[in-house]
Amino acid sequence: MSRFGQFSHLWVNMAERLGLEVHCCEVEWGAGVPLEEYERAIEADKAHEIKAVFVTHNETATGVTSDAAGVRKLLDAHGHPALIFLDGVSSIASIDFRQDEWGIDLAVAGSQKGFMLPAGLSFLSVSTKALEIAKETNRSMEKCYFSFADMIATNDNGYFPYTPPTQFFYGLRAALDLLFEEGLDAVFARHHRLAEGVRRGVGGMGLKLQAVETKWESDTVSAIRVPDGVDGAAVCRIAFERYRTSFGAGLSKVAGKVFRIGHLGDLNEVMCLSALAAAEMSLADAGAKIDLGSGVAAAQAWYREQAAEAVAMKMAAE
Description:
Structural class: alpha/beta
Helix content: 40-55%
Strand content: 5-15%
Order of helices and strands: EHEHEEEHEHEEHHHHEEHEEHH
CATH superfamily of the largest domain: Type I PLP-dependent aspartate aminotransferase-like (Major domain)
CATH topology of the largest domain: Aspartate Aminotransferase, domain 2
Number of strands: 12
CATH architecture of the largest domain: 3-Layer(aba) Sandwich
Number of helices: 11
């Protein structure tokens, strides 16, 4: 496992509390899954004692996306049978994810991000290989809640082993219809376009992201570093109290150092611009030297350029 943000940290903590032996790679908060370090561990594991490799696909706390497909490539290159577990809570249904193609054995997602619903539903997508291994693991690590065997036995007949959240399922059906009507490739492209506008807006304000390199930048959330002497928590408080806008706060190691803009789900350009405008006002009120309109203007230029290109492509196609 690797730890490079609050949510990857919580996953490590959970595994340790369950009594699992965890080899944890400590990574700078702003980078992502360290493929080189993972490969060294896999290559050295000649006895195949490592049973699973964990990937936080999108670290919500720092706005970092990792190369999940790269983990499968390195396992295959060394003929290693370890399972791949993936946290896709803030990536699935928003940025490119291909479970079968990438050989992901277990992926978890939540309803409150790309699926555009309130918090309350979790999703597990499990490979046949993982299901078979789970049968053996259950003998030494028994569980009752979300037993795969119980779920499969009742799901196949259209029922559930527990009281189902029926209203959520109706909402999920509507959300999936929206996603498939737009088309997943278009959904992913939209998220990238909107996120890039936010990133350009951040640059226009003279600020930087917590992501330490472009390759780590997330298309679903941007963690924005506040200037020295400015409290990120104050920025969030001012935005909420004065401008009725809710930003994500910095967590754990980056508490007070960043605030976060989420840009995923049912979202468009104007909504991103409004978030940047609120961020500018809140930063200025918190003591940052911000030229009001600078971030919004940078994002507007990008969105106008992208819109013009889309119109030109449509006219050419017609």
